[in-house]
Amino acid sequence: MSNTLSRLFQPKSIAIVGGGAWCEQVIKQSQAMGFSGDIWPVHPRSDEVAGYPAYRSLADLPAAPDAVFIGINRHATIELVASLAAMGAGGAICFAAGFSEAAAEDSTGDDLQAQLVAAAGKMPILGPNCYGFINALDGALLWPDQHGCQRVERGVAILTQSSNIAINLTMQQRGLPIAYVVTCGNMAQSSQAKIASALIDDPRVTAVGLHIEGFSDLRQWEALAAKAHKKGVPLVALKVGISEQAQQATISHTASLAGSDAGAQAFLDRLGIPRLGALPDLLEALKLLHCYGPLPSGNIASISCSGGEASLIADMAVGTSLEFPPLTDQQQVQLRAALGPMVALNNPLDYHTYIWRDGAAMARAWSGMTGDGIAMTFSIVDYPTTDQADWICATQAALSVRADTQARFAVVASLPELMPADVAAELMAGGVVPFLGLREALAATEAAANLRAPHPDPVCLPATTAATQTLPQTLPEAASKQALAEHGVQVPQHRSVMGPGAIASAATELRPPFAIKGVGLAHKSEHAAVRLGVMPQQAVAIAAEIGTEAVLIEEMITGTVAELLVGVIRDDAHGYVLTLGAGGVLTEMLRDTTSLLLPVQYGDIETALAKLNCAPLLTGYRGKPAANMAAIVEAVLAVQSYVLANAETVSEVEINPLLCTPDRAVAVDALIRKA
Asked: Rounded CA gap, 45 and 134, in Å?
């Protein structure tokens, strides 16, 4: 563990400063967890706290404490932190609220938080506005409330900015061994990424779960992802902020910058960190990763004694990246020998109940659903809440499969409440993952299969200059196209003209047919201000019908096989977000998009385009010619070139549509907003 945080998270001595129930609870929880180090209450007017002799001041302590829980008001906290830093304490938990998270109600909050950080200097602090941490490996904790953690020899670490969520997660009854729980609070000094980076130095930590409200220093997250990948410690995240309400709650809660969710997702993708959508999914993913680590693929197999469960898990996997590969010849031979001729062999497999209670036969059948090419095998078993005696055979069969084959194996309860806590613990002890819920099992498995190395290039951070100081202005379409063309984007031959004479002249200079567009309208199609297939003799009349003072006349592109959207938005929280998607008038209706963070490489763009639902159009659909993929990728790279060259002023770039033909990719409509 990093030197700056090791004393705090693995203390030999702890001090508790303050009185009242919160501070007494810290001491009681330390006793209950079996903390073997020194416990020093500090209180100016009490002789003892929770049965321990109290010290009147920090100066009276036998030595500088390794970890300190500060349970006093925010103003006194600042002074105390300065004293602890001066005496060489290992670190402190700042329990008090009323700092930057309350700045909307108290204008002094930000200033107080800055004073707190200055007072701490190089001494680590957690918070303010946080509960602290639990180290269940060593029985060391500074925690002022109930928790459900038990001593473990190895396990996962969970970090969250929400103390209440942390309490709830410790109460899980899923067989998950939790090594560390850390609440980060306002992260005034010690960020979530830095804390996680310190925890993965502990070889007893098997995986890390991150409940993230907002990213702060992107460089720290990139360093964490690289370090975790090198050490082989998987990271998974639950990132809130999809809804506008969640973003507002996040900002008011921890004063963190949530930013756009598209940017957050693109950043997690870049880090190689899978994103879960709910707390149960996060816990189940951590459980799987604790047992087996990342999965080599999304190939899964399922066996159950009910056709209903077989069809249910098959349906629930639709829309995920998980697949049920067909049974191999070897699997079919083994299954037929175990099940006889009356069972139809498939994946997922309904093995009926012919062999129920015959543990050896069940193990042979379940083993038949493992093998090369299967990343995870599920056996769906629902334990009754009444008499479970008849289900002992299922537990033993699962343990036998794991012991005999060493295959990745899970017992899945279709409903979370149908997996008893004692059974979950027994399965975990035998190396079998006890999944609580089919949906949760699939989400966890997909996450474990999607872990990958972080992107080698750091995110391009927006310059904090004119683009944030000045309201952006929208360039005319012709000017936008010209600016992009200078960086390599292909655009049609065009003229921006006013008046019948200039229109007629332009019609003789360009190759028909034309597209004629009104100038100065944000959504030209909504105003019937785009006319296609115009011939030279029609140009003046069509321009008059459109009715804008100026019009843009350009040569039409023929042979189009697909229309794409290429856009870049400045996101101050995450960097420049590149969005690729289906383009044209149906963009907003189809919402077929994927996002990345700049800078991107050639392969990144190819991979992103392949994810789109409209991807078949690009590769040739139903006998139609394919688009020129190289030209499309070069167009995107050209947009990136423009953005990076104008990072101090650009706030948005959009090409919609980029017309893709077998020969080229041409931007027929473009928009740039810049300061």
From this structure: 28
At 175, list the tokens.
């067989």
Does the model's pTM come out above 0.85?
Answer: yes
What DSSP assignment string belongs to 511-553?
PSSEEEEESS-SSGGGGT-EEEEE-GGGHHHHHHHH--SEEEE
Spatial separation of the C-alpha atoms in residues 608 and 619, rounded to whole Å: 14
Report which of 350, 401, 400 is spatially closest to residue 380, judged by C-alpha positions. Answer: 350
Query: Does 585 have pLDDT greater than 90?
Result: no
Distance CA 563, CA 382 (A): 49
If pLDDT is split at 50, 70 and 90, which confidence band does 249 have? very low
Q: Are 519 and 552 in contact (CB under 8 A)?
A: yes
Phi, psi of 615 (to 5 degrees): -55, -35
Give the gyration radius of the chain's Cα atoms.
Answer: 31
- Residue ranges and CATH numbers for the domains of the chain are 3-275 (3.40.50.261), 294-449 (3.40.50.261), 493-555 (3.30.1490.20), 562-674 (3.30.470.20)
Query: Structure tokens of 338?
Result: 């175990």
CA–CA gap between residue 665 and residue 511 (Å, rounded): 18
Q: Is the pLDDT of residue 248 over 80?
A: no
- What is the average pLDDT score of the chain? 91
Percent residues over pLDDT 70 in the chain: 95
CA–CA separation, 458 vs 598, rounded Å? Answer: 9
Residues 234/228, Cβ–Cβ less than 8 Å: yes
Contacts of residue 66, defined as CB under 8 A and 6 or more positions apart, other chains included, come to 7, 8, 10, 11, 12, 13, 14, 37, 89, 90, 91
Q: Report yes or no: 259 and 573 within 8 Å, Cβ to Cβ.
A: yes
- What are the Cα distances from residue 596, in Å, to 149, 239, 498, 566, 660? 38, 17, 40, 11, 21
pLDDT at 518: 86
The beta strand positions in 95-153, using DSSP E, are 125-126, 133-135, 140-142
**CA atoms of 25 and 222, how far apart (whole Å):** 37
| Residue 65 preceded by cis peptide, ω within 30 | no
Residue 262, both tokens? 């598209």
What whole-number distance in Å separates Cα of residue 402 and Cα of residue 399?
5
Cα separation, 336 vs 326, whole angstroms: 15
Strands 38-42 and 52-53, how do they pair?
unpaired
Distances in Å between the Cα of 148 and the Cα atoms of 15, 29, 161, 437 are 23, 11, 18, 21
Q: Which amino acid is at 365?
A: A
Using pLDDT thresholds of 50, 70 and 90, give the confidence band for residue 259: low
User: 162, 160, 155: which is closest to 135 by C-alpha?
Assistant: 155
Contact 115, 147 (CB under 8 A): no
Confidence of residue 254 (pLDDT cuts 50, 70, 90): very low
Using one digit for the tens of pLDDT, what is the confidence trace for 92-133? 999 998 887 867 677 777 888 999 999 999 999 998 999 999
Q: Name residues whose C-beta falls within 8 Å of residue 170's C-beta, 6 or more positions apart in sequence.
A: 134, 147, 148, 149, 178, 181
Q: What is the pLDDT of residues 59-82, one digit of tens each?
A: 999 999 999 999 999 999 999 999
DSSP string, 299-357: BEEEEES-HHHHHHHHHHTTTSS-B-PPPPHHHHHHHHHHH-TTS---SSEE-TTTTTT
Binning pLDDT at 50, 70 and 90, where does residue 169 land? very high
